[in-house]
Write a structure and sequence with these properties.
Elements: H1 5-10, H2 12-44, H3 49-97, H4 101-106, H5 109-134, H6 136-151, H7 153-200, H8 202-208, H9 211-237, H10 239-263, H11 269-310, E1 332-339, E2 350-357, E3 362-366, H12 373-378, E4 388-393, E5 396-397, H13 403-408, E6 410-413, E7 422-423, H14 424-429, H15 437-446, H16 450-454, E8 463-464, H17 473-485, E9 491-495, H18 503-514, E10 521-525, E11 537-542, E12 545-550, H19 552-558, H20 560-570
Length: 571
């Protein structure tokens, strides 16, 4: 639980005031049984009505003061716990946002969502209970035990046997329950993963009519989740009736011991009533303590899972202090670059890749599936770090550049372009947050997206669903390209991002891109040989290496792989 200490220290003043309210409110609760005892012994038993009225008024005043401070404590605990939860979620999201691709690959998306929502909620609930019940419980427990000792030391001996037994039961409960609640959160991860996969692939499910199979798959994880939750709650819940039995046994023993003392006038009736009230307060304090301990067990499991995310080492290339690339077009150079995916074994997906693309020129990358094309272009914006060799943007080594400054000067359009929920204009402005409406429209025109956007009733303010569910594949690709073009970056990376548009539209987009001023340095992956035939620089890849580099005429004479692609597509 060391994870939460820095957050709690941030609200130390509010927590301290809440603790003061707690202590005063608890002290008021502890006074009430003593006042009741005096009302019985000094007022009722003596027939003194004025004494009853006086002590009754005092009891009402004590109750009112306690209620005021209790309300204050509840308000503060709710505010602090929710602020703590908001801070923790922001830090988690920021940490995940800074994850490298390698770090993201280690954590399943469903698990990260569970940790940001359910696990965080467990910690928020525990923080709230900590201020409302957990800290009140020991104060009430110690106060009630102290009052019973002052009231009748002989009866207080009963507590000497009850309290240690209850403490032992709580320890066993925590020891047994922690691994069960860890398994519960893992089962929740799996259940969320199935739900997320279904929602992401709902079109495929409907197309192949596999709804029954998906229900059956969900039923497996849902049943496992229910079974794990039942086992965890049942195992921990067994201890509560045992604790209640121990407390009630103490009450019975107290009455049995007190009967002779009352008969012998060695103890007054009011003292018995007060002692029983204190015993009930002790029982209530132990019950609250046990409930919070159950929350502690689950919160501890959640804290471990959240801590794993916050402690994840970011394997993004080291942030240096070199100057960022200039806004002028710059060359892209690969010098004996090697790369293997983290956790993918020793076999590299790229080996000894070397080439130089002059500033303002276009590089077309082509090759068979699995040749390493996407792996290569992902190294340019440092989504991954090369395991060997060097990559230069202009004269600067990407390994020495500040990662944020480097990516600010690279526009990257991924193979599977992601459209976010919001307006079309908002999606385009992700490339440049302060872009004007005119800039948005110009980028859309360059990406051949303006016509279909203006065909909507709301134009650029049209709301698109999550992942662009109401856009076609070609429309999503063109919005993604517009997002990159509005960035006006000196280096533009296109990872087979026009596969869903026709050849004429692709040619129009490339013509518009090459007409930009200044013309960016373009690295473009394509599956169409017709898209690279007129490009001055073509990189042919095969099995992670360079099979050929040059223009169309050169490669047709010297590169067998290029010849095979040409003949398979055009002849």
């Amino acid at each position: 639980m060391r994870l939460v200490w820095p957050y709690w220290r941030k609200y130390s003043a509010q927590i301290s005031f809440g603790m003061l309210c707690l202590i005063i409110g608890t002290f008021m609760d502890l006074l009430q049984p003593t006042i009741v005892s005096q009302i019985i012994d000094q007022g009722v038993m003596e027939g003194d009505l004025s004494r009853v009225m006086h002590l009754g008024g005092m009891m009402l005043l004590v109750t009112a003061v306690g209620a005021v401070f209790t309300v204050g404590r509840c308000i503060i605990s709710s505010r602090v716990s929710q602020q703590f939860g908001a801070d923790l979620r922001v830090d988690l999201f920021a940490k995940i946002n800074r994850f490298s691709y390698a770090a993201i690959g280690k954590q399943e998306t469903a698990s990260l969502i569970t940790r940001m929502t359910n696990d965080t909620a467990q910690l928020v609930g525990f923080t709230n209970s900590l201020m409302r019940m957990f800290l009140r419980s020991p104060v009430l427990l110690v106060g009630a035990v102290t009052m019973t000792l002052l009231l009748n030391p002989r009866l207080a001996l009963v507590l000497a046997g009850v309290i240690p037994l209850i403490a032992l039961l709580m320890y066993i409960s925590m020891k047994v329950g922690f691994p069960l609640f860890t398994k519960l959160q893992e089962a929740l991860d799996k259940n969320n993963a199935v739900t997320r996969e279904y929602l992401s692939g709902v079109r495929v499910v409907k197309a192949y009519n596999t709804f029954d199979a998906e229900v059956a798959r969900f039923d497996v994880t849902n049943t496992a989740l229910a079974a794990t939750a039942t086992k965890a709650q049942r195992t921990v819940g067994i201890f509560f009736p045992i604790i209640s039995f121990a407390v009630n046994a103490g009450l019975v023993l107290t009455l049995w011991m007190a009967r002779d003392w009352v008969a012998a006038s060695q103890m007054q009736v009011g003292e018995i009533v007060a002692f029983l009230n204190y015993m009930m307060q002790i029982s209530m304090a132990l019950g609250m303590l046990f409930n919070v301990y159950q929350m502690l067990v689950r919160a501890r499991a959640s804290a471990v899972r959240v801590g794993e995310v916050l402690a994840e080492a970011d394997t993004t290339p080291t942030l240096g202090r070199a100057a960022p690339p200039t806004l002028a077009p710059c060359a892209v150079t690969f010098d004996s670059v090697r790369f293997a995916y983290p956790g993918g074994g020793d076999e590299p997906v790229l080996h000894d890749v070397s080439f130089t693309l002059p500033a303002g020129k276009v590089l077309g990358i082509i090759g068979p599936t699995g040749a390493g094309k996407t792996s290569l272009v992902q190294l340019i914006p440092a989504l991954y770090a090369p395991t060997g060799g060097h990559i230069f943007i202009g004269d600067l080594n990407t390994a020495a550049c500040d990662i944020d400054q480097l990516r600010a000067n690279i526009a990257y359009v991924a193979q599977n372009n992601t459209i976010f929920y919001g307006t079309i204009a908002d999606n385009i402005r992700m490339g440049k947050a302060d872009a004007t409406d005119a800039e948005v429209e110009a980028a859309a025109k360059a990406a051949c997206a303006h016509d279909f956007i203006t065909a909507y009733a709301d134009g650029y303010e049209t709301i698109v669903g999550q992942k662009g569910v109401n856009l076609s594949g070609g429309q999503k690709q063109r919005v993604g390209i517009a997002r990159a073009l509005i960035r006006n970056a000196p280096v533009l990376v296109l990872d087979d991002c026009v596969s869903a548009v026709d050849v004429e539209t692709e040619a129009a987009i490339m013509h518009a891109i090459r007409g930009l001023h200044p013309t960016p340095t373009i690295v473009m992956i394509t599956q169409r040989i017709s898209s690279v035939m007129n490009v001055e620089h073509i990189l042919v890849m095969e099995s992670g290496g360079v099979a050929g580099f040059g223009n169309h005429d050169t490669l047709m004479q010297e590169c067998k792989v290029y010849q095979e692609i040409y003949h398979s597509q055009l002849l």
